[in-house]
Design a protein that fits this description.
There is one protein chain. 8% of the residues lie in helices and 46% in strands. It has 2 helices and 15 strands. Strands 1, 2, 3, 4, 5, 6, 7, 8, 9, 12, 13, 14 and 15 form a 13-stranded mixed beta sheet that branches. The chain has a two-stranded antiparallel ribbon with strand order 10-11. Residues 1-23 have low confidence and may be disordered. The longest helix has 11 residues, at 150-160. It has 222 residues and is mainly beta.
Length: 222
Amino acid sequence: MKKSTTFAISSMLLLAPFMLFGCQGESAKIEDNMSEQTTIYYSSQNGNHRASISVGTRENPYSIDGYSQQPCDFSLINIKFDLNLNDNIIAAKITINDNESELKLDLNPISHSYMADLGYQLGSDDQIRIEYKDITFDFANLSKTFNTSGEEAITIAKEELASQISAYTKGKTFEGECYLKVLGQTDNFDNLFWCFTIEGRDGKTYNVIISVDDGSILQKTN
């Protein structure tokens, strides 16, 4: 993977509905305040059409508000077509390990991509194909090539944001929520990075972009 000094940090909004599980007990430990944590990342490209699947756990209900809710499993599919599609919902065919089914994807009006959550975690060795009209995506698990794991990225981010974490820690409570996602550059889908985010209850946001290759800090925003 190539390194770059210019990044486009984009947030992915999940449109699929969730059932309410309720708020978890408050804890000052960062690992207990993860509102989203990606563990597996699949990617596919067909010409200028691009697709990814982020797999892991995320809070339910999903709300960027500084409070971490009980986690549930997810496999979030994101497809960016190089087409002028205006449909709010499209139907595609998804094949997972030879099991075929229909997949309905919702249009995200912010990113102009189509998204769907399978509602469970895909495995790291699953064979995945998505077909829409004459466009086919065959996915590869790129997270297998990461030299820096998600757990290592969290440790690195905790060191980098030590002062912010300390400021949000009130006794046994952490007054914020955290996210760990895999991000790619807009114009180069092969460049991937860990993005660790703190959303404070005071409305402030802190991001650390970490190389999946060597764990170096590539960008820090606040």
